[in-house]
Design a protein that fits this description.
Layout lengths: L10 E5 L4 H12 L3 E8 L17 H14 L3 E5 L1 H17 L6 H20 L4 E3 L4 E5 L5 E5 L16 H4 L2 E2 L9 H10 L21 H9 L4 E4 L5 E5 L26 E6 L4 E5 L6 E11 L9 E6 L6 E9 L2 E10 L7 E6 L2 E13 L13
Parallel strand pairs: 1-2, 1-4, 2-3, 4-7, 8-11
Antiparallel strand pairs: 5-6, 8-9, 10-11, 12-15, 12-17, 13-14, 13-16, 14-15, 16-17
Helix pairs in contact: 1-2, 1-6, 3-4
Amino acid sequence: MTDAAAPRRLRVLAAMSGGVDSAVAAARAAEAGHDVTGVHLALSENPKSFRTGARGCCTIEDSHDARRAADVIGIPFYVWDLAERFREDVVEDFVAEYEAGRTPNPCLRCNEKIKFAALLDKALALGFDAVCTGHYAQVILREDGSRELHRAADMAKDQSYVLGVLDDRQLAHALFPLGDTPTTKSEIREEAARRGLFVAKKPDSHDICFIADGDTQGFLAKRLGAAEGPIVDESGEVLGTHDGAYGFTIGQRKGLRIGTPAADGKPRYVLDISPVDNTVTVGPAASLDVTALTAIRPRWCGRPPESGPAGYTAQLRAHGGETEVSAEVVDDTLRVTFTEPVRGVAPGQAVVLYDGTRVVGSATIATTTRRPAPVAAAPQQAG
């Protein structure tokens, strides 16, 4: 929902993380004439155990920064405790996915389950019309009254990938004041400074907000325990051992702890993670080439795809590029074929389809099809 799509004065609940983007988004919504209330989501059951400083968005300091920003903007401010819901829907899901050998995206899950489900439901129950966030994306109102999610005006800051899980109802109550502004991040900070917002110089949050030191493997080890298993090559030869298959991701190169070099002297990458027998398989980069995938639990941002295969572009990571694909939905499963092979595609990741700048929808990768590795030529016999 952009300002152009909502000429009437709305009651807006602005999710304020304590960072510069959400603060400027709330300020713009208020300046546009909407009745804005700020809210900071307390997502940690023990916020002191989360990041200190400004690396995350879940610390006590972040809630104080959000409150100060709300005071400057001149809007009411509250802190809502969604820690239990966040633990169940995001943190426990994250751990369970890694334990099953998949690679989840917790930011995408947070948008789906927390900001545009738990938060939105509570906002609507209290009489608010929309939830406002600092995401860089656009919601465009069509002449027929339907809404579409589009990439941000500035592709360098586009965050539509992690919003690809939003459905019609959620888009109807979403406000992204930063999405249609082709300004650089430094200009957003300058705007924050002009508005007198203390967070103008605050560093951006990064990594996973609920992992205090950025050590994902250590975080998982504390919850899942050590589980030694083999690291093997494609032929099944044991090359080394690991302390838990959950600590690896498809396409990983570093931290494999393999003492034996490859025969060709080239780096090896994680090709497969098997939680059943706790085995990690490694091999050459060429073996990572994926030609197709299937994805489950599709969610459509507006109208679903037409029946039958059609051409789209796909994005596979939050900061990844686009690649051309052919995709179709068969029995509620999304089947995607890549025009050119791509690497590092892992089950558990989200594939987001685009039609130009329009986000068609998102689905969770279940299986991948790899291009067969080239067969080495047999040695020639002497004549």
